[in-house]
């Protein structure tokens, strides 16, 4: 059975890149070595792999990748840090609850 990986890279400019691959080690090396000049990560090296999740179903992996790509930076950071309760807070509807702030920085 083939394994697919949804991954997040942290770039040298502190931005995040989310991708999908069936060979995580090879794909990370390609990003790090700059194999593709038109890739988002090319001018943002060096890179750090900060998150990945395995999937056995390509369609599930693709849907998860698309979902993460639509997330805010704060929400991606919360996923990377495995702050599951905070992730629930950040998933609430903006129109009902207002724009979320990073729960890890709130006081009191």
As a whole number of angstroms, the C-alpha radius of gyration is: 15 Å
- Strand line-up in the sheet with most strands: 2-1-3
- CATH class of the largest domain reads Alpha Beta
**CATH topology-level fold name of the largest domain:** GIY-YIG endonuclease
Give a brief rundown of this model.
With 108 residues, the chain is α+β, with helices and mostly antiparallel strands. The protein has helices at 24-33, 58-69, 73-80, 84-90, 94-97; strands spanning 4-10, 16-21, 48-55. It folds into 2 domains: 1-70, GIY-YIG endonuclease; 72-108, no CATH class.
Topology:
Layout: E1 4-10, E2 16-21, H1 24-33, E3 48-55, H2 58-69, H3 73-80, H4 84-90, H5 94-97
Antiparallel strand pairs: 1-2, 1-3
Helix pairs in contact: 3-4
Notable features of this structure?
108 residues; alpha+beta; GIY-YIG endonuclease; 2 domains; 5 helices; 3 strands; 38% helix; 19% strand; globular
């Amino acid at each position: 059975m083939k394994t697919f990986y949804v991954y997040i890279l942290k770039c040298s400019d502190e931005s995040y890149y989310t991708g999908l691959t069936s060979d995580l080690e090879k794909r990370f090396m390609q990003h790090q070595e700059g194999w593709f000049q038109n890739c988002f990560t090319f001018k943002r090296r060096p890179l750090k792999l900060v998150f990945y999740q395995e999937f056995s179903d390509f369609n599930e992996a693709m849907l998860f990748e698309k979902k993460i790509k639509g997330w805010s930076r704060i929400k991606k950071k919360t996923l990377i840090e495995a702050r599951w309760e905070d992730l629930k807070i950040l998933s609430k509807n903006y129109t009902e609850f207002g724009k979320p702030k990073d729960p890890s920085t709130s006081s009191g």
